[in-house]
Amino acid sequence: MPRTQPNIIITGTPGVGKTSHCDVLAVNTGLKHLSINRIVKDRGCHDGWDDEHQSWIVDEDKLLDSLEDELPLGGHIIDWHACDLFPKSWIDLVVVLRTDSTKLYDRLKARKYPEQKLQENLDSEIMEVLLDEARGSYDQGIVVELRSDEADDIEGNVGRIETWIKHWEQDQVASAA
Ligand SMILES: Nc1ncnc2c1ncn2[C@@H]1O[C@H](COP(=O)(O)OP(=O)(O)OP(=O)(O)O)[C@@H](O)[C@H]1O
């Protein structure tokens, strides 16, 4: 059955501002904010804790199994630092947030990230790893790169995404008529 509400991935390097964007977008649109980090932990979609990287070792099959009934229905904002595992047929828009490396350094430092993890994330942002992943996994037309340097960017970006949602929903109605 065609979706009446879209599924949107908000992705990017840790600290780039995904949660900050998703929280506002969820309030403004009523779409459901799915924090994949929280789902991995709460639904046990992992093979234990990785001490070195201070993160859960994600079991992608379990994660997809746990999402396969709800996600294809639409109406979700998917918040994660990876995007390539979600089937193309589930996803309508992929937003890759980007930020300046000095700003990212300050944000991760404020979160007391260990030096190695901080450096890995900085490298990942500089090398555009998430942007490449998004472009390699989805049609070019649905991948959008947005800046998340200043607090004002959040409001502007969310406004742009809300406009996109309205157009998407109008297109769905038009193509169903
Ligand atoms: N556009 C922005 N301008 C200024 N500060 C921001 C911006 N976006 C996020 N921040 C700040 O950066 C920090 C990290 O933001 P946030 O938790 O939203 O990032 P994230 O990408 O969701 O991180 P993670 O992947 O680790 O969950 C927070 O302190 C937040 O207030």
Automatic annotation (TrEMBL):
Q: What SUPFAM superfamilies does this protein's entry cite? A: P-loop containing nucleoside triphosphate hydrolases (SSF52540)
Per the record, which residues fall in region LID?
110-120
| Top-level division of the source organism's lineage | Eukaryota
Q: Name one GO cellular component term.
A: cytoplasm
Q: Which InterPro entries match?
A: Adenyl_kinase_AK6, P-loop_NTPase
The enzyme's main class, written as a single word, is transferase
Enumerate the catalysed reactions: ATP + H2O = ADP + phosphate + H(+); AMP + ATP = 2 ADP
Question: What are the alphabetically sorted keywords of the record?
Answer: ATP-binding, Cytoplasm, Kinase, Nucleotide-binding, Nucleus, Ribosome biogenesis, rRNA processing, Transferase
Q: What is its EC number?
A: 2.7.4.3
- Kinase as a keyword of this entry, yes or no, is yes
UniProt xrefs under Gene3D superfamilies: P-loop containing nucleotide triphosphate hydrolases
Q: Which GO terms describe its molecular function?
A: AMP kinase activity; ATP binding; ATP hydrolysis activity
Subcellular location per UniProt equals:
Cytoplasm; Nucleus
Asked whether the UniProt record includes Cytoplasm among its keywords, one would answer yes
Q: Name one GO biological process term.
A: ribosomal small subunit biogenesis
Record: residues binding ATP: 15, 17-20, 111
Query: Region NMPbind: what ranges?
Result: 35-58
Oligomeric form and interacting partners: Interacts with small ribosomal subunit protein uS11. Not a structural component of 43S pre-ribosomes, but transiently interacts with them by binding to uS11.
According to its UniProt entry, the function of this protein is described as: Broad-specificity nucleoside monophosphate (NMP) kinase that catalyzes the reversible transfer of the terminal phosphate group between nucleoside triphosphates and monophosphates. Has also ATPase activity. Involved in the late cytoplasmic maturation steps of the 40S ribosomal particles, specifically 18S rRNA maturation. While NMP activity is not required for ribosome maturation, ATPase activity is. Associates transiently with small ribosomal subunit protein uS11. ATP hydrolysis breaks the interaction with uS11.
UniProt family annotation: Belongs to the adenylate kinase family. AK6 subfamily.
- Name of the protein described by the UniProt record: Adenylate kinase isoenzyme 6 homolog
According to its UniProt entry, this protein's organism is Imshaugia aleurites
What taxonomic ancestry is recorded? Eukaryota, Fungi, Dikarya, Ascomycota, Pezizomycotina
The gene designation is FAP7
